[in-house]
Design brief:
Shape: globular
Radius of gyration: 31 Å
Oligomer: single chain
Distance between the termini: 108 Å
Number of domains: 3
Structural class: alpha+beta
Number of helices: 5
Strand content: 35-45%
Number of strands: 33
Helix content: 10-25%
CATH architecture of the largest domain: Distorted Sandwich
Largest sheet: 8 strands, antiparallel
CATH superfamily of the largest domain: Glucose Permease (Domain IIA)
């Protein structure tokens, strides 16, 4: 009997040692991974929490988020209350929590410092023990919306064209600009346009696009880092414009020339070359959209300073073969196959002529660009850029500073061109606008220079 008791005691001690060791080892395991993706440093009226939590097997014992301020704790999310929403399963091991954390969701939130606290735990040792993680983020609560006021007057915009505004936005760290419908045109410190009288002044170029309604809302906006936003109406008048319509007859000779060349320059787009018409339609539709998206992204590379001082230069002695916003119907063997809008001017003189910079600026693109062929984009500052397409050769590199009238390349028929010419267009905030405004000394003086001078600037 004594031997049996010793055996039992030994077994119990061994089991206790094994269990104790397992308990200690389990306690050293890491808790769930936690990442607070939003908000950043600030919380405002409508700020949102975006939280990622990850654990092996997607097993969570708890997930809780609170906002702590002034000794008070405000609950934001708990895994125990799934009916409140905000939970999304991303993968088998990862969940996302998205919940409002601004003043509108937490009524007692006050301006000043606060802390977001996220805690999560997961089961280990067959659910007998749990390991936890905790992550905090210190934030500043900002509840007052920015201030914004338009200073310039007489904003006359041609449909499809550009305009310019001078306004004041405070405090200093707000993001601001002009909103036309659902398109935002960023503003820039007015010092970049030669206005140094007031650090709170901003300037912005904006446009009413050819396909936007004449009654589209145009407002200036200011948004602080906490997401608080204020809008102010921009008094303006719109001048309607008539745009042409044209019929483009496609033939196999043209298709067989352009499709293989463009497909070779865009190998990742899987453009068919065995069926010429199918290849053309993919280029004219899908690739056109992708190329225009790329062009729009170039607006992020603009200078905060106005790099131009005068009217833009049209290609000398050129004949206009196609105008801006020309609505084109494409016909193949008597059947309509596509419709697109031509957003630029096709200018022709003779083959392989020098193409010059319309204004001084900095080259931000100089390479093949799908439907535009060999293409150059020059930045002129404050979101204004010019584009030169279908070139036979390019004579500049990205980063080059060019003067007005300097040769940048030679005309050609690369890309989706039916003959030798220059495709030229202007860009404002990445949006293609009619160049006619920019070729006009009167437009530049009335729409831009007068407003700069009235605000105390001079160029």
């Amino acid at each position: 009997m004594r031997a049996f008791l010793k055996l039992v005691v030994s077994v119990v001690l061994v089991a206790a040692a094994i269990y104790g060791g397992a308990w200690l080892v389990a306690g050293r395991l890491t808790g769930p991974a936690i990442e607070i993706r939003q908000p950043g440093s600030y919380v405002g009226q409508t700020s949102m929490l975006e939280l990622m939590v990850e654990a092996p097997g997607g097993q969570f014992s708890s997930v809780d988020v609170t906002v702590e301020q002034g000794g008070k704790s405000f609950p934001v999310f708990s895994l125990d209350r799934p009916e409140e929403g905000g939970l999304k399963q991303d993968t088998a091991e990862r969940i996302y929590v998205m919940r409002p954390v601004g003043k509108r969701a937490i009524a007692d939130l006050q301006e000043g410092p606060a802390t977001i606290v996220a805690q999560a735990s997961r089961p280990v040792l067959f659910g007998i023990r749990h390991v936890a993680s905790r992550l905090t983020r210190d934030v500043t609560v900002r509840l007052q919306p920015p201030s914004i006021a338009v200073l310039s007057t007489f904003h006359y915009v041609n449909h499809g064209g550009s305009e310019f505004v001078v306004y004041r936005a405070t405090p200093e760290d707000v993001e601001s600009g002009v909103r036309v419908g659902n398109i935002d045109y960023p503003g820039f410190p007015a010092a970049g346009a030669g206005i140094t009288s007031d650090k709170a002044l901003r300037v912005a170029f904006f446009a009413l696009l050819y396909d936007q309604d004449l009654n589209t809302d145009i407002q200036v906006y200011a948004r602080d880092p906490a997401g608080n936003e204020r809008l102010a109406p921009l008094d303006h008048r719109v001048f309607p414009k008539d745009y042409s319509k044209s019929r483009i007859e496609l033939d196999d000779r043209f298709i067989n020339r352009v499709v293989p060349a463009i497909a070779a320059g865009s190998p990742d787009r899987q453009i068919p070359t065995d069926d010429g018409l199918a290849g053309f339609l993919k280029i004219n539709g899908d690739l056109r959209r992708l190329n225009n998206q790329f062009i729009a992204e170039l607006a992020k590379k603009t200078s905060p300073e106005m790099l131009f001082t005068g009217v833009f230069q049209q290609l000398g002695n050129s004949q206009v073969e196609a105008g801006f916003a020309d609505a084109r119907t494409y016909v193949y063997k008597g059947k309509e196959v596509d419709r697109q809008v031509h957003l630029g001017f096709d200018l022709a003189v003779t083959a392989n002529i020098p193409v010059v910079a319309a204004q001084q600026g900095v080259v931000v693109h100089a390479a093949d660009l799908g439907i535009y062929g060999n293409c150059i984009v020059i930045d002129h500052g404050l979101g204004v850029q010019s584009l030169y397409g279908h070139l036979s050769s390019i004579g500049v590199n990205v980063g080059d500073k060019v003067e007005k009238g300097a040769e940048v390349g030679r005309s050609g028929m690369t890309g989706l061109a039916g003959g030798d010419h220059l495709h030229f267009t202007m860009l404002v905030g990445g949006q293609q606008v009619t160049p006619v405004d920019w070729w006009s000394p009167q437009w530049l003086e009335d729409r831009v220079n007068r407003k700069i001078a009235a605000a105390g600037g001079g160029r």
